[in-house]
Description:
The structure is a homodimer.
Chain A lengths: L1 H11 L7 E3 L5 H13 L4 E7 L3 H15 L4 E13 L5 E12 L1
Parallel strand pairs in A: 1-2
Antiparallel strand pairs in A: 2-4, 3-4
Amino acid sequence: xxxxxxxxxxxxxxxxxxxxxxxxxxxxxxxxxxxxxxxxxxxxxxxxxxxxxxxxxxxxxxxxxxxxxxxxxxxxxxxxxxxxxxxxxxxxxxxxxxxxxxxx
Amino acid sequence: xxxxxxxxxxxxxxxxxxxxxxxxxxxxxxxxxxxxxxxxxxxxxxxxxxxxxxxxxxxxxxxxxxxxxxxxxxxxxxxxxxxxxxxxxxxxxxxxxxxxxxxx
Lengths: 104, 104
């Protein structure tokens, strides 16, 4: 149940704002395309954000973008942190998060 | 089938050499304990290594160690890369990997 709630949170955060790409439950290539589009729209930096089990998908997106699609792009910075989520019943849970900054 | 082979690889690499802790299928707290033990044995740096879906567990281990057990420890460096694995039938598969360096 808690798992399902988390999923919903991630889905609502999947909308992109500015140069941030939130990693959700979609396939890896969808996020790679989102990153490529951001760079093609003139962004010099794109930040990938992911939480929990989706962290590994963010790393996949960064690596595939860098190695296969935009070879001029480098990984500028990687930050990890712990975020606190409040579920609907008011209970607090902690989840790891990552932010990967890609730059060209 | 491929999934199972990968698991075996990860299991054999789970043995610790020097100041490296390979993240495998065990619970998070087991790896936190391994990191704490390394620092208590006099290491000034401990490197967490993980591949594929286990990347998110490595981030959990780093965050829990830093926030709950060794508050003097900081995240010194995070590297991500792509590794090539050869399975038993000779086919090549690529997998993302992470290395998190903790230092006190």
